[in-house]
Amino acid sequence: MKRSLRQWVIGSSVLLLTGIAAGPLWAQDQTTASATDSQVPPPAHKHQVHVDDLGSVFWPVDLPFWIRLSPSAQEDAPSFLLNTIYEAEDDETTGRKSQQFGTLVPSTSGEDNTTQTERYRASGLSLEIQGQQFVRWVNFLTKEESLFKFVADGAPPISTLKLREAPVFIKGGHTFFGKGLTAALTAQDALSGVRDVFFSIDGGAFVRYESELNLGQEKHYSLRRYAVDHVGYASTPQEVLFTVDLTTPTTVHATHQNLLGDTLSTSSVIRLSSEDALSGVQTVHYYFDGEDESHVYDDKAGIALSELPDGKHVLYYYGVDQVENREQAREYAFYLDRTPPRVAHTLIGNYYATEIRQFISKRTRIQLKATDAQMQVQSIEYRVRKSGKKDSKQGYSKYATPFTPLIRSGEFTVNYRGIDALRNRSNPKSLNLVMDSQPPKTQFQLRGSNYTRGGGVFWIASHTQIRLDGEDDLSGMQKIEYQLAGQPTQAYAGPMTLENEGQYLFRFWGTDQVNNREVFTPILLLVDNTPPEIAEVFSTDPLRTEEGEGSEVVNVYPINTTLFLSAVDPANVKRLEFSLDDGPAQPYKDELFFTEPGRYRIWVRAQDNVDNTAEHSAEFVITDTL
Question: Which run of H or of E encompasses 215?
Answer without folding.
Answer: none
